[in-house]
Amino acid sequence: MNLNLHNPEGVWNFFNTILTIPRASGNEKRIIDFIKKFASDRKLFTKSDNTGNLLVIKEASAGCQDYRPVMLQAHVDMVCEKDKDFEFDFSKDTIPAYVDGDFVKTRGTTLGADDGIGVAVMLAVLDSKELKFGKIGCLFTVSEEVGLIGAKRLDKSLLDGFDTLINLDSEESNIFYIGCAGGEGTNADFNYEKIQVNDNYIYKKITVSGLLGGHSGGDIHKKRCNAILILNRLLWLFQKKTDFCLVSFNGGGLRNAIPRDAEAVIAFAPELEESFYKIYNYYLIDTKGIFAESDPGLTISVTDTDKTGTCIDHATRRNLICTLRGVPNGVIEMSESIPGIVETSTNVASVKFAQSSNKIQVVTTQRSLLELEKALICEKIETIFTMGQANVVHTNNYPGWSPNVDSNILKIAKFSYKRLFGEEPIVTSIHAGLECGILKNKNTALDMISLGPTITGVHSPSETLDIKSVEKIWTLLVAILREMK
Predict the structure, then answer these.
(1) Stretch 369-386: mean pLDDT
(2) Cα separation of 167 and 273, whole Å?
(3) Which residue in 159, 231, 234, 454 has the most C-beta neighbors within 10 A?
C-alpha cells in the first residue's frame, strides 16, 4: 500500500505504514509494538502503563532547552466498520486506501484516519532531524473508540512533567476545539421466551440499508436516518394493525456510530400479506421523501426467507417495539451559550438479538456539554426502557472538557494560524467526546487544545481524508511548537 503522497513526506510515509497494521479497539498490540520499535531504533525514551497506553519522549533539540515541554496525544485504535457485502478481515488485511483528487478514500471499509493520521503526525515529529523543538512527549492511547478506555485507565504518571497538551483527534482543519461533551451509555436487556410459530405462517426479511451513518457526536445534527428506528417504525405500524411473530431483529454496530443498516425477520398468516405490503409501500414512499436530502441512499427491502419455527414471545415483542418507538433519538437540545453547537443528544446505537441466551440488547449513547443534562436524558431513557420491562445499566460514563478562553496554548495556536493563513481560526467546543476531559481530570495543570486535518464520514466506509489539510495542520503544528519558548 502506497498512496504516493509526498508533502509532508514523513507524515504520509508513516500513514502508509499504519494502513497495513491491524488496530481494532482492544487489539492494538501490533501498532503499539511498531511504535515501541520505532522509538527503540531512535533511542527515544518510552514508558507504558498496564492498559497499553504508551508515552514516547524526545528531548529538546540543541539550543531549545528553554522551550516549554509539549505533549502531543492521539489514539491508536480505529473504528472497524465495513459494507455488509464487502469481504474484509480487520485482524489482518491492509486498509484499501486510494487517492481520489484531493482526498484519500477507501473501498468498503473505514479508512482509520481517525486517528491514524494523528498518530502519523506524531511519529513524523519524533522522527524529524531537521526541525528544532523543545522537549516533546507523544502519548499514544488505546481503546478510545469503545468508551475512551485507554484514557480512563491511564496511569497519570505518564502525564508528569507536562502542562501543555495538543490533542490531534479533531476533524476540521480551520477549527480549534477547547471543550467537548461528556457521555454515558444506557443499555437495556430484554429477556424473552421462545414460542412456536404456526406452520402455515410465511416469513419475511426486512432490510434497511444504504444509509450514510456517521459519528454519533459529530454528525448527530445532520438529520441522518437511524436504520434501527426506521425499521422499528415499520414494525410498529404493522403491530398496530395485527399480531405477528418477531423472529429476529439486529442492527447497528459500534456505540458511537449512527446505525447504517438493520434487519428483522417476521412471520405472519398468509392472509395478512396484502395488508403488510400496503403498509410497507406507503411507509417506503413517505420515509424516502422525508430523508431525500439528508440520507438519499435509504433502501427498505422485503424478501421471502427460510422458516425457523420459533420466535420471541408476543409480550416481549410488543415491549421492544413500543420502547424503541418511544425512546428519544438525535438532538435533544442546542447550546444557548455556544451558537450552532449541540448541547445534548442521544443515539440508539445497536440492537443485538441473541438466540442462544434468549436476550435482546439495546445500546444507546447520551452526550451533553452539561453534566446535569446528561444525567437527565439518561434518566429519561432508563425510565422508558424500564416501563418496557427491560433491565437497564449505565456504562462508559466520562466527563466533558470545560472551555478555557484564556488558554495560553490557544493564544499561541491562534497567533500561529493567523500568521500562516491570514485569517482567524474558529474556536469552539465539540459535541463528540475527546480524551481531553479525562486527561484534565488526571492532571489539572494541563492547558489543552484539540486540532487536526479535515476528515469526513468518520466511523463509516465513506470516511475521507483531505490531503491539503494534512499539510496545513503539519505546517501549523510545526509553527506552534516553534513558538513554545
Answers:
(1) 95
(2) 55
(3) 231
**Residue 217, pLDDT above cutoff 90:** no
161-175 residue pLDDT tens: 999 999 999 999 999
Report the pLDDT averaged over residues 63-91.
Answer: 94
Task: Please pick, among 28, 81, 114, 144, the residue that the annotation labels catalytic.
Answer: 144
pTM of the model: 0.78
What DSSP designation does 474 have? H
Indicate the SS3 state at residue 274.
helix
355 has a pLDDT exceeding 80: no
Q: Sign of dihedral through CA atoms 274, 276, 287, 205?
A: negative
Cell numbers that stand for 31 in this block:
501498532
Q: Which distant-in-sequence residues (6+ apart) come within 8 Å of 423 by Cβ?
A: 417
- Class of residue 73 by CB neighbours under 10 A (exposed 0-12, middle 13-18, buried 19+): buried
Is there a catalytic annotation at residue 293?
A: no
- As a whole number, mean pLDDT of residues 248-269 equals 94
Number of H helices, E strands in the chain: 11, 23
More confident residue, 64 or 433: 64
Are 115 and 75 in contact by the 8 Å Cβ rule? The answer is yes
Between CA 273 and CA 269 the distance in angstroms is 7
Q: What is the mean pLDDT of the chain?
A: 95
Map grid coordinates 532531524 to a residue: 129
pLDDT value at 432 more than 90? no
Q: How confident is the model at residue 117 (pLDDT cuts 50, 70, 90)?
A: very high
* Cβ-contact 145, 365 below 8 angstroms: no
Q: Is 204 buried (19+), middle (13-18) or exposed (0-12) by CB count in 10 A?
A: buried
Question: Quick check: is 144 catalytic?
Answer: yes
All three cell numbers of 270, joined, read 398468509
Whether 337 shows a pLDDT value over 80: the answer reads: no
Query: What DSSP assignment string belongs to 307-364?
Result: --SEEE-HHHHHHHHHHHHHS--EEEEE-SSSTT-EEEEEEEEEEEEETTTTEEEEEE
Flag whether pLDDT at 397 surpasses 80: yes
Distances (CA, A) of 427 to 121, 172, 176: 22, 11, 5
Alpha carbon distance 350, 264 (integer Å): 13
Q: Which of 77, 115, 261, 435 is catalytic?
A: 77
Query: DSSP per residue over 121-187, as a string?
Result: HHHHHHH-SS---S-EEEEEE--GGGTSHHHHT--GGGGTT--EEEE-----TTEEEEEE-EEEEEE
Q: What is the DSSP letter of 96?
A: -
What is the Cα–Cα distance from 98 to 101, expressed in whole angstroms?
A: 10
Nearest to 254 by CA among 86, 476, 461: 461
